[in-house]
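Before going further, it is useful to explain how the protein records used in this thesis are read. An example of such a record is reproduced below.

***
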Amino acid sequence: MSELRQIGGRIGAEYTGTDPHALSLNEITTALRRHKVLVFRDAGLDDEGQLRFASRFGALTKAHPTVPSVDGQPDILPVRGEEGIRSNTWHTDVTFVRTPPKLSTLRALVVPPYGGNTLIANSATAYRDLPRQLRDFADRLWAVHTNDYDYAVPKTNSRQAAEYRKVFTSRTYKTAHPIVRVHPETGERGLFIGGFAQKIIGLSGSESRDILRIFQSYVTRPENIVRVQWNPGDLVLFDNRITQHYAPDDYGDLPRVLHRVTVAGDAPAGVTGDRSYILEGDEAAHYTPVPAGLAA
């Protein structure tokens, strides 16, 4: 009998000693809708098992729109902690395309003896924390998300880091998303921002930065965050439509390797029902299939 234990006051729950494949899709989906993040301790999966698990929730994306996959595994993104190319910025995966992934899975292969955790935030409770006047304001706003910003700027002068930046921005994407996204299954409203959101449509760059900083401060309140402390073999599933995550750069030059597999999603809808639209780039069809009936 599987047992689910809540690990955060507002976000996160974990299974211990449970084969993820042994759980019904309905059980996992119900738990994910409630907790936003599910941690499967010592899941016992290899690459094929992770792919098979993620595909239970829908069609898979490729590894990334611009970054290469694991060799021989086009749907798996290697998440490595080499110095200078760490993603220690709050973000939601791949929001610079029109149809970001709906779900993400991360599996730990190599973890440092200290640090190297992943923080995940609940953007629905963040939205509910906003004063009514700020909620009403956010409901009307749209933001430009792009991969061409300092998320990928090297933090060292290494050739490896510079090359990563070049690859990450080899295709430029800019997409307009509602700042408040309505979850297509639960109807919850969440702040759909994070690091790829760089400018609010209709406002100047400085105005955009100030307002986005205010909204983002609600997302990253400690009460809205769960910290996942990794062990090799752990698997994490999170709802990319209503969370953000962050990997603190606190483990020096120690090795850290995760594998990411993501499930294709739809174009986000705002409070009025209007959906996201492309400003620069394309549909990223090489990266993600669009679920039938959800592309408009």
Q: What stands out?
A: The first strand starts at residue 4 and ends at 6. Residues 47 and 182 are 32 Å apart (CA to CA).
